[in-house]
Amino acid sequence: MNSDTKHMEAATSFPATYPDDKSSAPPPPYSEDAANQQTPSDIKDLSSQRTSLSSETSSLPSKTQPSRTLHCVTDGLSLTSARVLDTDKSTLAYSIKYRLRKAHLSLVCATTGVTVGTVSYHCRTTRIDITVRDTPLSLTSTGMFSCGYSFESPALGGQMMKWKTQKRWGTDLVCVDERGEVLARYVFSRFSLRKCGRLELFVDGGDEKLVDEVLVSGLAVVEWAVMTRQSSVPVPVVVTS
């Protein structure tokens, strides 16, 4: 057998790969083989997207709708009292009384007439003293130029509860626990002589002790925010002594 014959047999013994041979075709999109061929850069981009989505959702309250919404209103330009209406905006839930000496603010339940809590401010310190059902608590400022306040919550077993601005340069306030879960939010009303704002509660309405702490501490921080910012929001301004 000559050399030309040998080369011809070798060529016919090992056929070339044809286009219809699926073994050499690229894997179809979204197949397991295609997923296994992801480059390190693709995996890094996917990881960063997941991290970004996680950080965005973690700042949201666990409940998208508040369990209760309270509306703070005044009778015109009254500086001595205000009212807190329930979710229906007509039922009186609480009344707020102001005076020049301590306690500067008192929150009274409309149905029972019992004082839920009081608020006292100080001239020479940013500390705010409150009482919730006769239990004394102290709110300490989180910064000289900040409206943030924190305190140990008996209703949460001594955990720190904090009121802070919802956005860096915003005015609305949120109340969070140690895990960063939103418990309440106060939204100021603007361009109104009667409506002061609304307090959205995301806590269990059956936990009265926790609700009372959020209410009293929230009103205390709201008043302080109005005074320190010299805001035009029409909330009665407390004159401290």
- Strand segment tally: 12
Give the radius of gyration: 32 Å
Distance between the termini: 119 Å
Largest sheet: spatial strand order: 1-2-3-4-5-6-7-8-9-10-11-12
Shape: globular
Biggest beta-sheet profile = 12 strands, antiparallel, barrel
Question: Secondary-structure map with pairings?
Answer:
Layout: H1 3-13, H2 32-36, H3 40-58, E1 68-73, E2 81-85, E3 92-98, E4 105-109, E5 115-120, E6 128-132, E7 135-141, E8 149-153, E9 159-165, E10 173-176, E11 182-188, E12 195-201, H4 208-229
Would you write up a description of this structure?
This protein is of the alpha+beta class. The radius of gyration is 32 Å and the shape is globular. Strand 11 and strand 12 form a beta hairpin. The longest helix has 22 residues, at 208-229. The protein starts with a helix and ends in a 12-residue tail after the last helix. It is 24% helix and 29% strand. A twelve-stranded antiparallel barrel has the order 1-2-3-4-5-6-7-8-9-10-11-12. The model is unreliable at 5-24, 29-35, 46-61 and 231-241 (pLDDT under 50). The chain contains four helices and twelve strands, in the order H-H-H-E-E-E-E-E-E-E-E-E-E-E-E-H.
